[in-house]
Every structure is written in C-alpha cells, then in structure tokens.
Amino acid sequence: DLSSSRSALISLSSAVGGRTILWNTSSNSNPCSWSGVQCKNDAVIGLHLPGFSLSGEIPTGVFSNLTSLATLSLRFNELSGNLPSDLGLCSELRNIYLQDNKFGGEIPEFFSGLKNLVRLNLANNNFSGEVPGSLRNLSRLKTLYLQENNLRGFMPELKLDLDQFNVSGNNLNGSIPVSLSSMPVTAFQGNKLCGKPLQICPGLAAGGAIAGIVIGAVVAFALILMIIVFVCGKKRNKESNAVDLASINKQLGFDIPEEKPAGDVENGGYGGGGYSVPAVAAAALATPGHTKAEEVNGGGVTKKLVFFGNGIGGKMFDLEELLRASAEVLGKGTFGTAYKAVMEMGTVVAVKRLKDVILGEVEFKEKIEAVGAMEHENLVPLRAYYYSRDEKLLVFDYMPTGSLSAFLHGNKGAGRTPLNWELRSSIALGVARGITYLHSRGSDVSHGNIKSSNVLLTKSYEPRVSDFGLAQLVGPSSTPTRVNGYRAPEVTEPRKVSQKADVYSFGVLLLELLTGKAPTHALLNEEGVDLPRWVQSVVKDDWASEVFDLELLRYQHAEEEMVQLLQLAVDCAAQYPDTRPSMLEVTKRIEELCSPSIREVNDPTTFIDTDDGSSR
Ligand SMILES: Nc1ncnc2c1ncn2[C@@H]1O[C@H](COP(=O)(O)OP(=O)(O)OP(=O)(O)O)[C@@H](O)[C@H]1O
C-alpha cells in the first residue's frame, strides 16, 4: 500500500534530522522511486540509508506501515533512543543493519519474533541490559553482531548455527556457553567472560589443577624444545645470509638495504622504501664474476641503453648516467625489483631490474621492441632497455602518484584522500581503454596480470596500466604462482592467459573500485574478499546498495550509473569466458554510462573530495 508507506517514510524522514531532501515528497510522488527505497510489487522491501548523517529518534508508528521490509540499513548515522516497538511487526525482515549509531535502551524482545532474520548487526551503539535469551528463537540467524555496547550479565546459550558473531567491548561476565566456544577469541574480548575460547573459569581451574600441572609441564617442555630448535635454526640461517651479504657488499663497496615486498598495502605498496642507495642500478650490474667495467665494455662490446622514441621528456642519457643516479626501492614484483632513480640532470625514472629472463638477446630484443612500440595514453610507456648476459633493465616513466591499489587501500586513517565517483569512473574508463588498445594489437596479445597495483596514476590521477608484455620475457619461476583474487577461474596455468581472462581481472578491478574492498581469493575478512562471489551474494539478497563503498554513497545523483557499472563488472567477472564481453564492448559501455560524470572530470577541482560531509 503505497499511500501508507509514503506517509510512513515522510514521517521517518522528517523525524530523523529533517532530511526530506533525500526523498521527493511532492504529492503523488511514488516512494519506490526515492533513493534508498527499494520496492517489489509496490511494497517497500528495503530501506538503505547508510551514512546519511541522520540523527534523532525514530518515531513509533513508522514501521507499522512498512511491514514488507526485508532489509533495513541505517548504519553509520547518529540515530538515538529506543528502537520503536512497531519494528517488531516487520516479520519479513532478513537483514537489520543498525550498527554505528547511538541507539540505546535494552535490546528489544520483539527481535525474537522476526523469524526470518539472517543478519542482525547492532554493534557500536549504546544498548544496555542483558543479551535476550529469546534470540535463540531466530533459527535462521547467521550473523549476530553486538560488540561495543553496554551489555551486561551472562551470555545466554543460543544454540544457533552462526557464521559471524561478536560481543566484544561490553560488560558481560560469567562463562561462555558451549555452543559459542568455537568462535574466535576476538569475539569475546573486552568483557569479564571466561571459558573456551578464553581462559578457563576460576571454579573449574581448581578441579583441573592436577591435570593442568601435568599438561602444563609437558607443554612447557615442548615449548622449550621448539625454542631451542628455532634459535639454532635462525642462527644457521643468519650465518648463511651473512656470507651472501658480505660477498655482495664487498663487490659493491656499500650496503644494500633489505628490499621491501611489493604490494605492501600498509605503505601503499608504493614509495614506502624511504632509503636511498647510491647508484642502485650499479648494484644491479655488479653480479658475481662481472665487474661494472667488464659489464659495460665486456669483450670489447659497449653495452648501451637502447631508447624508444626520443627519450624521456626529449632527453636521452647513457648507462653511466643511470648508474650515477640515486635510487630508492619501490617494491619487489613478480618480474623483479622496481627502483625510483633520480638522475643528476634531474630526470626521474622507474627502473625495473628483471629476474629470470630466459630469452637470448635476439629474442629478447624482438619482444621488448614490441612492448616499446605500444603507445597509448593509458599505458605506462617503456622508454629504454638494457640487455647484457647477466642483467636486464627496463626504464619507464616514473608515476608520481603511485598505484590505484595504494590509493584505494593505502591509508585508512584520518586525512585519507577519498576517491570521488567522477574520479573512479574516469579511472575505470582509462584502464578499459588501455587494455582495449593492448588487445587491439593482436588476438594473442593479452596483459595477464591486471590488478590495482598495476594501475599507476599520473599527477592529475589519469590511470596508466603497467607491466604489460613482461610475462613473455621471463621464465616460469617468475610468473605469478600465488592464486590471486583477480585471476579468472579457467586460468589454472598462470602463463596461459587470454584476453577473456583479462576481462575477468578487469571486472574484479571494477568491483574493487565500486566496493572499496581488496580482492583476495578466499573469503577472509572485511579487508579481503572473493569480490565476484561476495557481490553476487549481496545482490541476490536484495541489499544491492550495501555493496558500494561508503565514500560513494553520497553521490546520489550517480546511483544509476554506479548500479550499471556494477552490473558490467559482474558481467566481466562471469564464470565462463565465452559469456564475458570483449574489452572493446566494455569500453563502449563505460563510455555510454559514465559520460555525464566524466565530463565533470575536466575540472580538476572536482577530482578530490574534501570528505567533510558537506556534499552529502
Ligand atoms: N613506473 C612506475 N612509477 C612509479 N611506481 C612504480 C612504477 N612501476 C612500478 N611502480 C611501483 O613499484 C612497486 C613494484 O612494482 P612491480 O610492478 O615490480 O610489482 P607489482 O606491480 O606490485 O607486482 P607484479 O609484478 O606482480 O605486477 C609497486 O608498488 C608499483 O606501484
């Protein structure tokens, strides 16, 4: 019944902070077209208003007109007061997300009547009183999040088959019920609880004292043994490392700091090295048995940097100059280590020192020249290369803003620069164009390693795809063996990539841009998920708008575009290669759906949001 749900929504809207701006409440307007309102057969089945700065109490009576609700999401607002009792009338509710508000009072008993509930999240509120034992009636419940409230008393035995559970940060005491003993320690921390998985309860400890002493002694003995074995092993390792480093240092005449692994999200996977090595490229050339001079003039043949086009910014330089550059490790990737090198004349380049190149010089030149010939505004240009028997160096333009991965996941703290919708969609389009160009060079040309750490950003945040064409240069030991969240399911052999596998990886990258979540293979935690599977499950559960990155939710005007891009991402990440679109089609679809937003990108001031909530 639309008329009653309409008045219910208007009263909710005016009660919670007067945010009527969210909904067009003019006469005859259908609430089903209002943003955040989801309908099925004219009945309101979803209310999705996360992060809208709503405040105040929800008046009683609103929910009695919304009894078809299946999903209620009001998370990340400032709503307060008791939950209205008529929420208990919404017996169709499956998902309740009320976390990160200021709701108070006791957890209402009426929840136990919502028999269809699958997810209940009341975390980070001011709920007090005890955890109602009647929650055990919710036989379909899979997620129960009650952490960071003021709950006290005992934890009741719920005997539910929960996948996700957390009551940490309350004032609960007593023993943990057996049915919850398999939950992780973190689910109970910050209470006065005892028993498995936490420490044994005091009363029980006395009874088990003797057994405890015996077991304790055995465990202690085993521990001491393990420590001895570990310490001896470490000492041995250190000795062998010391020999290696000593011999390298002797050859080079200076210390090489330890290299940082690439893709280190904490440091943004980029530029986190912080140390500077004099002429790190020289280090690259000084391999056992070859001195620098021999290498450069080995056997009378002068090895040179071979440039494509007219150098970097019109400047060319020779190997000697590169060797004199001060360098900094950017990270270690699949194909070798990347350095930032600043030359005396001020030119900054990125140098990649390839490892495990199996090709002979002629074949290497042929392949690398094909890479050097690739020219597109969304690809990182290869400017020069150096080939000798023991060293292969590639010189690229240095991208000062780092990788998309670093930008999306690097700095979660305050002061983080959020990526607005216009920027995200223009990055999506740029990357799609770069890959489409690669694919247009031949049906057998594919990238093979598309991921957000291989999308680098220029100063004005234009995306450039890197690392293309390198997989063909190196041996199998350098191909990415780790199963990663970007790899298409049919790619069982990492070197057997295809254009359709690139489309899959691009689909995952789109999902990453839209959800703000980093993909990993397994369903791990909030930080890493099997993105295609996660998104599909969420969309199937009718809570599609829950998918998007919180930072995107303020761009109400672009919701339609976001949903369409999400659909495209899901199409790209289809399980079967044949059902995925081609990159050319993908580019066209993004051009069509994002063109209004992307036009705004021409104004550089729209790139970055101030994150002060003013545009919400
Ligand atoms: N041209 C460049 N300009 C600036 N930073 C770069 C450049 N090329 C690479 N980097 C940075 O150097 C680091 C290592 O890059 P590299 O390409 O070697 O590995 P990766 O992309 O992390 O992994 P993989 O080799 O599996 O693709 C990354 O953090 C990357 O962002």
From TrEMBL:
Transmembrane segments: 204-231
Binding positions for ATP per the UniProt entry: 352
Descriptive protein name: Protein kinase domain-containing protein
Top-rank lineage group of the source organism: Eukaryota
GO MF term set: ATP binding; protein kinase activity
Keywords: ATP-binding, Leucine-rich repeat, Membrane, Nucleotide-binding, Phosphoprotein, Receptor, Repeat, Signal, Transmembrane, Transmembrane helix
Annotated Protein kinase domain residues: 324-598
GO CC list: membrane
Gene3D superfamilies for this protein: Phosphorylase Kinase, domain 1, Ribonuclease Inhibitor, Transferase(Phosphotransferase) domain 1
InterPro entries, A to Z: At_inactive_RLKs, Kinase-like_dom_sf, Leu-rich_rpt, LRR_dom_sf, LRR_N_plant-typ, Prot_kinase_dom, Protein_kinase_ATP_BS
Main localization (coarse): membrane
Glycoprotein among keywords: no
